Every structure is written in structure tokens, then in C-alpha cells.
From TrEMBL:
One of its GO terms (molecular function) is heme binding. Belongs to the cytochrome b5 family. Residues 67-148 form the ACT domain. SUPFAM superfamilies: ACT-like (SSF55021), Cytochrome b5-like heme/steroid binding domain (SSF55856), Oxidoreductase molybdopterin-binding domain (SSF56524). Residues 146-226 form the Cytochrome b5 heme-binding domain. This is SUOX protein. One of its GO terms (cellular component) is mitochondrion. It comes from Symbiodinium pilosum. Coiled coil: none annotated. The gene is SUOX. Pfam families: ACT, Cyt-b5. Keywords: Heme, Iron, Metal-binding. One of its GO terms (biological process) is sulfur compound metabolic process.
Length: 299
């Protein structure tokens, strides 16, 4: 499948907000993680005089849903008609893509969407979307689940052969073809292969603070994480709870207490080893001290 040449231009239009046949705008799309709840997919096959197509609408149940609109014969105007349909359903489009097959008129329009009040679409709303898209053509529909993966499953994908997967919040992403093109280098991104990238991105905040890393990531989504990391409640239930967050790229030999060393991939980043990547050798929890109160007496 090759991305259509006009895709980038189209995406810019989508991100700026759609202006469809009736000139109205829909909300500016944002890229967010989808929810881990089980999802339903509605699939419909239909045809009319202009095109033969199929449509899948997957509900993530939480923060986003995915709609795949497959057409056997793409035609000018179909995209704006479909987006108008979604807009009339008061569905926010966070991301949109079109992929085509080489030497074929077939195309797949993919929309990552959220419901008007935020979140993924309920089964009822999916049915409404299906019915609305059927205004473009008529046909039959099927339901199937949206892929749900556990962290353990993600951890089995760390090589080009098995596919390189990562998770972020409650989403699962196949980054195999992106790894070579990562602006921060292949070595760095491979530190997170098969793992959650959340702790890495807490360190390398340029991914979330600016630029298009989140949007890029969303284009590689393949499913939802069934066991996403829990937000810390801040409650102190163990002596190690207040230990600082360590650089996730370190090689951990022990967590409580923390013993870790610097991997070679990070060694040459700086001649002066930055504090966060110094080797760590603890025997106890890190003491909690108030810098204002703390006094060191040397006798
Ligand atoms: C898996 C999905 C990832 C995506 C889609 C991604 C995407 C990007 C993008 C778009 C940039 C350029 C940012 C900018 O300058 O605006 C970037 C830079 C960078 N990334 Fe990633 N990244 C990913 C994972 C990681 C991981 C896991 C690490 C760390 C282990 C990492 C480390 C870096 C570093 C060090 C830079 C260079 C920052 C700089 O030179 O300013 N990235 N990444």
C-alpha cells in the first residue's frame, strides 16, 4: 500500500479543520491515545452507481475510534463527501489518511475520530455512522473486535523479523518501518522496542512539547493496550515509592534498591556524563530530604 501523494496536503487541510461542501468547519483534530476498553467494529459492504466500497468503524470505547472506509474505485469528491457525513454526525476527526494500492483504483480512507463530547464512539453511535455512510451507498454490515494487545504481547515484538512494537498510554504501535527514520537515531528508539515509551518521553519531552511526534505515532497505531500503566496516585505505600524516576534507557540490574548502568548507546552522547545516566548503586531507598532544612555537618 502506498500513501497517496496528496495525503500530506490533505492532512494539513484536516488539521486546519475541514471545510466541506457546505463550508462549515469541524473541530480541529488532536492526536490522543485510544482507550484500552474492548472495542466493536461495524463493517459494511455496499455499492452504488459511483463506487463499490466497504466501511469499518471500530470503537475503542474510550478516547478514540477508527473508521476504515475502503473503496474499490476511488473518485474525486468521495473524501469530502465522507468527511461531510462524519461532520454532520458531530464527530471530531483527529487524524485522516488515504492509502492506495499500486496499479489499482482501490483506496482506504482511515479516520481516527472522537465523539462530540470526547472519547470513542459507542456501539449506537457506530451504527449511526454506518447508517450515515450508507447514505453514500447501500449494502450490508458485519461486526468484529478492535485488536487489543497486552504488554506481554508487545514485549515479544522487538526485532524487524517479529515487528518492532511499542506502547504509549493505552495505544499499541508498530514502529518497524519508522525506526530507521527516527530523527533522534535508531539506537535511541530501539531502547524502547517492545516496551512502553511513556517513561522515555518523560525524559525526551520534545516529543510531546512541540513538533509532530504524537501525530506521527498515531499513524502507526495497530491497537489498544489491554493493561495500560496506571497513573500514580501519589500515595506512599512502600519505602521506594518516593525514589526518583530513573532514566529509562539505563540497564537495570535491580529496581528496589536501584542498581543500574549506562548502555553503550547513551555513552557517547556527552563527554561529561550527565547526572541522570550515571551508574546507580543503592542499598536502601533514596532518603527524602528538604533542601531548605537539610544540613550536612562535617566534623
Ligand atoms: C516510538 C515512537 C517515537 C516517535 C514517533 C519519535 C519521533 C521523534 C521526532 C518527530 C523527533 C524530532 C522532534 C523534534 O525535534 O521536533 C524525535 C527526536 C528525538 N527522539 Fe524520538 N520518537 C520516538 C521514540 C523515541 C524514544 C523511545 C526515544 C528515547 C529512547 C527517543 C529519543 C529521541 C531523541 C533523543 C530525539 C532528538 C532530540 C533532539 O535532537 O532535539 N525517541 N523523535
Amino acid at each position: 500500500m502506498a500513501f497517496r501523494r496528496g495525503y500530506e496536503a490533505f492532512l494539513r487541510t484536516v488539521r486546519a479543520g475541514f471545510r466541506g461542501a457546505h463550508g462549515a468547519r469541524c473541530a480541529r483534530p488532536q492526536i490522543l491515545g485510544a482507550n484500552a476498553a474492548a472495542a466493536a467494529v461495524l463493517t459494511c459492504q455496499y455499492s452504488n452507481q459511483r463506487t463499490i466500497s466497504s466501511c469499518e468503524a471500530s470503537a475503542a470505547g474510550g478516547s478514540s475510534s477508527i473508521i476504515r472506509f475502503r473503496v474499490d474505485s476511488d473518485r474525486p469528491g468521495l473524501l469530502s463527501e465522507a468527511t461531510e457525513v462524519l461532520k454532520k454526525q458531530q464527530i471530531n476527526i483527529r487524524d485522516a489518511r488515504i492509502s492506495t494500492e499500486e496499479a489499482s483504483p482501490r483506496a482506504t480512507h482511515v479516520y481516527i475520530v472522537e465523539d462530540r463530547g470526547g472519547g470513542g464512539l459507542s456501539d449506537q453511535r457506530l451504527a449511526e455512522v454506518r447508517a450515515a455512510l450508507q447514505q453514500l451507498a447501500s449494502g450490508s454490515c458485519e461486526a468484529e473486535p478492535w485488536p487489543l494487545f497486552s504488554s506481554e504481547e508487545v514485549s515479544k515484538h522487538q526485532t524487524p523479523e517479529s515487528g518492532i512494537w511499542v506502547s504509549y498510554k493505552d495505544g499499541v504501535y508498530d514502529i518497524t518501518s519508522f525506526v530507521q527514520n527516527h530523527p533522534g537515531g535508531k539506537d535511541k528508539i530501539m531502547l524502547a522496542a517492545g516496551k512502553a515509551i511513556d517513561p522515555f518521553w518523560r525524559i525526551y519531552q520534545q516529543h510531546t512539547g512541540r513538533g509532530n511526534a504524537l501525530e506521527l505515532l498515531e499513524t502507526m497505531r495497530i491497537g489498544d493496550l489491554s493493561d495500560p500503566p496506571k497513573e500514580s496516585s501519589g500515595a506512599c505505600s512502600c519505602p521506594y515509592d518516593s525514589d526518583p524516576e530513573r532514566h529509562p534507557g539505563l540497564i537495570f540490574h535491580n529496581n528496589k534498591p536501584c542498581n543500574a548502568e549506562l548502555p553503550s548507546e547513551l555513552m557517547m552522547d556527552s563527554w561529561l556524563t550527565p547526572n541522570p545516566v550515571w551508574f546507580i548503586r543503592h542499598h536502601h531507598p533514596v532518603p527524602v530530604v528538604d533542601p531548605e532544612e537539610f544540613r550536612l555537618c562535617i566534623e
